[in-house]
Specification:
Elements (H helix, E strand, L loop, with lengths): L1 E2 L5 E2 L9 E7 L2 H4 L10 H8 L3 H10 L3 E6 L9 H21 L4 E3 L1 E2 L5 H13 L6 E4 L13 H10 L3 E4 L5 H12 L11 H16 L1 H4 L5 E3 L1 H4 L1 H14 L7 H8 E4 L6 H11 L4 E2 L9 H10 L4 H16 L2
Parallel strand pairs: 3-4, 4-5, 6-7, 7-8, 8-9, 9-10, 10-11
Antiparallel strand pairs: 1-2
Helix pairs in contact: 3-14, 4-5, 5-6
Length: about 325
């Protein structure tokens, strides 16, 4: 695929889409050494998780993925003390930059942000974009119990808007009080309930809804936010949310309008055709981007699903890579 200067696209002679996957995780061993309990890395995926070279590229090639945007896995440094988070985020971002530099046509990156120190996180975002060439940042769940809409974190949004890069909201293990109230009866027998089975979805969707309600998008009207897993189920409920909030609360005139103007979705780990159709109908094909969620999900399953999904050729080209190349200026 060849892009013109105005980011329109045309298909090459081979008619093969340029495939970008942008929720593809790695783990930095120094950061991971501080994970405990439910955040510990499963040994079954440790080798693939840590790989930033041959193994990862081999699996990309097997599936036909041209480029991945690398991001550290959850919980990164969101649950650490501020000074430790700042130090680890900086050195981990430097190491990721080195890995990208070794394979610049195959890898790009999202920064790890030390959100326990919001001002330092904003500075690290700027350093990572301006000096390391990263394409935005990923934040995992709550920061030591605080939702990201808390105004202490708004310097990060201000800097993201100024840099014209997105913030990717990724799940992490829910707040302990939520686990106690909602999940404890089943968490031992079904630990995935806290994660992709449901807990991740509820926490991250709540983060997104709170951001709309907080006024952050009035303060930063060019702020862009990415949600994985086809929007954490919000597309399915968007009409009901909008109608409920618009009846009495009058959220800036329209919850739907604010949400659709500021959010983008990826397909990471949610290869459901009905969910894709719902997301496309609510958000439009221009706001949906391909992702796999490697190493937790296999590259080939994601690629083959989107290749065979009953959508138009033009929309498939956009979702596979054109939208990401436009948003991230790849």
């Amino acid at each position: 695929m060849i892009f013109s200067e105005d980011w329109t696209w045309r298909v090459s002679i081979q008619d093969k889409p340029y495939i970008v996957a942008l929720e593809e995780h790695y783990i930095d061993p120094e950061v991971a050494a501080h994970f405990t309990g439910g955040d510990a890395v499963r040994s079954a995926i440790r080798q693939r998780y840590e790989d930033l070279g041959e193994l990862r590229i081999r699996e990309m090639d097997a599936a036909g993925i041209d480029l991945v945007v690398l991001s550290h896995g959850a919980p990164a440094v969101q649950k650490m003390e501020p000074a430790l988070a700042v130090r680890l985020a900086r050195v981990a971002n430097d190491r990721l930059h080195d890995a990208i530099a070794a394979h610049p046509t195959r890898f790009a990156g999202f920064a790890m942000l030390p959100t326990p120190d919001p001002e330092a996180a904003a500075d690290e975002l700027e350093r990572s974009v301006d000096m390391l060439g990263f394409k935005g940042a990923m934040v995992h769940g709550l920061t030591n119990g605080l939702f990201l809409d808390d105004k202490r974190f708004w310097p990060i949004f201000e800097r993201a808007q100024a840099l014209d890069v997105p913030i990717y909201l990724h799940p992490s293990i829910p707040h302990p009080a939520v686990i106690e109230a909602y999940y404890k009866d089943y968490a031992t027998a079904y630990p995935s309930l806290l994660r992709a089975g449901w807990g991740f979805t509820v926490e991250t969707a709540t983060q997104a809804i709170r951001l709309v309600l907080s006024g952050a998008f009035d303060a930063y009207p060019r702020l862009k936010v990415i949600l994985g897993h086809l929007g954490e189920s919000i597309a399915f409920s968007l009409t009901r949310i909008d109608e409920a909030l618009s009846r009495k609360e009058n959220v800036g005139g329209s919850f739907r309008k604010l949400f659709c103007e500021h959010f983008y979705f990826t397909t990471s780990g949610n290869f459901s055709t009905p969910a894709l159709h719902c997301a496309m109908m609510e958000m439009g094909a221009d706001r949906i981007m391909f992702s796999v969620d490697w190493p937790f999900v296999q590259n080939e399953s994601g690629v083959r699903w989107l290749e065979s999904a009953p959508i138009s050729h033009d929309d498939r080209i956009k979702i596979f890579g054109a939208n990401a190349r436009r948003l991230l200026r790849l």
